[in-house]
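Researcher: Here's the sequence for the chain we discussed earlier.
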Amino acid sequence: MSKVYLIGAGPGDPGLLTLRAKELLETADVVVYDYLANKAFLDFCRKDAEIYYVGKKGGDHTLPQDKINDLLVDMAKSGKVVARLKGGDPFVFGRGGEEAEELIAAGCDFEVVPGVTSAVAAPAYAGIPITHRSFTSSVSFITGHEDPTKTESSLNWEAFAKSGSTLVFFMGVKNLPHITENLMKAGMPGDTPAALVRWGTTCRHRSLVATVATMPEEAQKHGFAPPSLFVVGGVATLHDKLAWYEKRALLGKGVVVTRSREQASDLTRLLGAEGACCYEFPAIEIAPLTDVAPVDAAIDSLYDNDWVVFTSANGVDCFFERIDAKGLDARAFAGIRIAAIGPATAKKLAERGLRADFIPERFVAESVVEGLLAQDVAGKKVLIPRAREARDVLPEKLAEAGCTVTVLPVYDTRPVDQDPAEIIQAVKNGEIHYVTFTSSSTVKNFFAQIPPEVLKASAVKTACIGPITAATLAEYGFTPDVNAAAYTVPALAQAVIDDARRGA
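Model: Thanks. This is the structure I predict for it:
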């Protein structure tokens, strides 16, 4: 059944997308999205979904509104389910009503999915409650950019100036002098508190507090531009006291995450929780083996081993893919002892019903060997499922201790072919502050695409997960600016956060 869903994407923070909106994005045949709708939401879409960008930015219309209407109607009439993703709420200055009217006229079925409006969310992230018993019990949402074809303004400036309500102007930055002049002419005192919030709720969130009289000059001085909300009223004085979001250590800091796309989410989430603008630039990708026969054979003779040592979460996942394919489960490991190189690997094992018998204190191969020798591994049979390309320290040291070691490749890692232009330009623009490396392969493959000189000519800091990665980074002429206290992703994220706090 074809239908067009007019979906509010919220103000930009991915966490403010509604569950209903996510559900529809995951199932829609076509997604049509705006400039203010976070592109991260496209990750929810089906891989075969048709994606159309129809954003409007600073008067530059990628697709005029009438053409957007035609697109929605055409897609619906062709029998497709369409997710029309609009920033904020579709019925709050989102022209959702106009699109709904066009759909009705064309005989197309539609549904409205409300979203969190920026008029509420952006001031809230800036510590400004739009109503407060000490200041006002009402609020007005006003466009700062009326339909240019109207012969006269429909805004009642005198009513706004004397209402005592909090006033929230959408799209009003360019017209700030006009707005403030009209408010003061209508009787509003020039010293009335006011605030601007730009890119509210996102990693680029900024705010500015002044007065109605001084705001145009202050906005220009501080470089405020669209998209910004203009908030007028006594509640703006609460900004300094309640601005919780702006205390985040990484707010506005660009951080490059070089982990594989499959693994990047944890680091991105931890950094994003502190306000970072994360650039996912996976230097490697996890690739399945073309020939799984050796893995299947190893599983058939799994009971021959005394120990199985997993050196990564990927190794666990890929090994268990074949275990699952053979109709087996954790019981295949009966009588076998299991080692995990770190807590993330141990967690993956636990999800599969296996508890690691050994986890080293330090999460590098040398510590694994030392710990296993203390576990009386000498002379035992050891299976190591891992990437095809990996350091040989672990198997070599175990072999020296008299172990019979089988190294079993269960997946490949390979460089990702991608366009580095966005990262290079962001570095040159000063928009990136950290590049994180979680393995030697991420270092090598990152610099295979982005010349080291690009970073050396900037103030970008490098952050490493451990000494092996740091040693590889040194080959390119860098000493890590940030080192993780422990060789884990959470520790790396914390190290970056701590460094940003020190530099604040």
